[in-house]
Design goal:
This protein starts with 6 loop residues before the first strand and ends with a strand. The mean pLDDT is 80. The protein has one helix at residues 78-84; strands spanning 7-12, 28-39, 55-56, 63-76, 96-102, 106-112, 116-122, 127-129, 133-135, 139-141. It is built from 1 helix and 10 strands, in the order E-E-E-E-H-E-E-E-E-E-E. Strands 1, 2, 3, 4, 5, 6, 7 and 8 form an 8-stranded antiparallel beta sheet that branches.
Length: 142
Amino acid sequence: MPRKLRTTTYFVPSLLRLDQSKVTPGDAWTETNTWVALVEPGIAPDPCNDNSPPAALADLPNAFQCTGDTEQWSVIAVDDAERLGLERGSHALNDVLCHQVERGPTKISCFARGVGKFFELDVGDKREVLVSYDIPGCGAWP
């Protein structure tokens, strides 16, 4: 069955993925942003982080926004991420940094220098794991 894009979401300012200025477990900060979702007709948009419904935009059909969505970010130790479900598999990754964000459900993203994001977990829900990579000049895994 072919898949069809049903929602496109934009974050203002752009959604933070990795903040390399905060690398010590326990570092914490707050981000506030607005998101705009364009949805296919008949598809309900996701709720805002506080579970309230997003506001319809009058000048753009099938567009909704949440203003002032607040996210609590923190750096967590790799050991803590492993207790929550981090899977490093057989990746021999060094210099790993994990961020945890409270954006509705808790999400953990782990990054390895020179590789990028290799693991993401929506705690109690879905898990994304990098299964292979190829770094020019360094080689491929596996």
